[in-house]
Design a protein that fits this description.
Alpha-Beta Plaits, 3 strands
Length: about 325
């Protein structure tokens, strides 16, 4: 089996498992979203309503993640030479943006509630929040294992993690309202939920945009890759070096390699593939072999791959 087909089968198996995880989680979250929505209205708790709002965004995010997991199963072909691998990144970006919008709405409502405090039913708020924490912990355990190597699943997992931490904040606020009569604890808990959501979603949006802009992965130093290639016996120079991520776990590299005179290409190609796969984790390589008298770059077509050189001082 070729390396490319093995990667597709591996991604196919992961996608099926992720679909099951997402379906179960959506069922749990749907039930408790309704419970928190009704409970927040009954107890007049903004933090419960904020948590319910976050759960609604979770449902939208989980639905989007499920759709992306299904889409990724479609093979490449025709004009779609990379298939639908990038759907994972788009799903993660939308999830992150949705989280930021939810956080903005909660932040505004929390500030207004701090200015004008209202009575809250502490015991009922506490009981509903405990139930929400249990549901969120179950959801996290279901999604665990699928989020480490998939940015789309990580977006869904972060939604549920934010809800879990939000439930803890609501429980603490409920205790303070119930035992001490501190009604301000309710909007303060909502503000804490906002900070959690903003922190997790901002990182997700940044990482998604970095992949869509085809930046090199953060853990792959481009100058170090170029230096490692040039150190191989038989390599005179390297240019047009590009490293990018197609989807989580699928990295690509393309480069033009200039050989020393009389250097056979085949053994060097084997060394290059071994070096780049084992040391830098690149799975998809495209290498153009050149000689000193021939360069595949014409009319500045390789300018993107050249690092600027310092100007000489007269």
């Amino acid at each position: 089996m070729s390396h490319c087909s093995h990667h597709y089968d591996h991604a196919h198996d992961h996608s099926h498992a992720n679909r099951r995880r997402l379906t179960w989680t959506m069922g749990l979250v749907s039930l408790y979203f309704l419970a928190e929505l009704i409970g927040g209205w009954w107890t007049n708790s903004l933090s419960l309503l904020a948590d319910a709002g976050h759960m609604f965004s979770d449902l939208a995010a989980l639905g989007l993640s499920l759709w992306v997991a299904r889409l990724r199963l479609q093979p490449s072909g025709g004009q779609r030479t990379f298939g639908y691998h990038r759907a994972e990144i788009l799903g993660a970006l939308v999830n992150g943006a949705l989280l930021l919008l939810v956080a903005g709405g909660i932040l505004r409502e929390s500030w207004e509630r701090l200015q004008h405090s209202q009575d809250v039913l502490g015991p009922q708020m506490f009981g509903i929040a405990i139930g929400g924490l249990i549901v969120n912990l179950l959801s996290l355990s279901i999604l665990h294992g699928g989020h480490q190597h998939d940015l789309n699943m990580r977006g869904a997992w972060l939604h549920v993690l934010g809800d879990t931490l939000g439930s803890v904040a609501v429980i603490v606020a409920a205790i303070l309202v119930w035992c001490c009569g501190w009604t301000w604890a309710d909007p303060v808990a909502s503000l804490l939920v906002c900070l959690i959501i903003i922190f997790s979603s901002w990182n997700l949006v940044q990482e998604s945009l970095s992949i869509l802009m085809e930046h090199a992965p953060a853990d792959v130093p481009v100058p170090e890759v170029a230096a490692a290639i040039k150190e191989l016996p038989g390599v005179r120079d390297i240019h047009c070096l590009h490293i990018w991520t197609i989807a989580t776990g699928l990295r690509s590299l393309s480069a033009h390699i200039v050989l020393e005179p009389d250097q056979p290409a085949e053994p060097l190609l084997e060394d290059l593939h071994r070096l780049l796969a084992e040391r830098f984790g690149t799975q998809h390589l495209t290498l153009q072999i050149e000689t000193e008298g021939f360069s595949g770059c014409e009319a500045g077509s390789c300018a993107m791959g050249r690092h600027p050189q310092p100007e000489s001082v007269p």
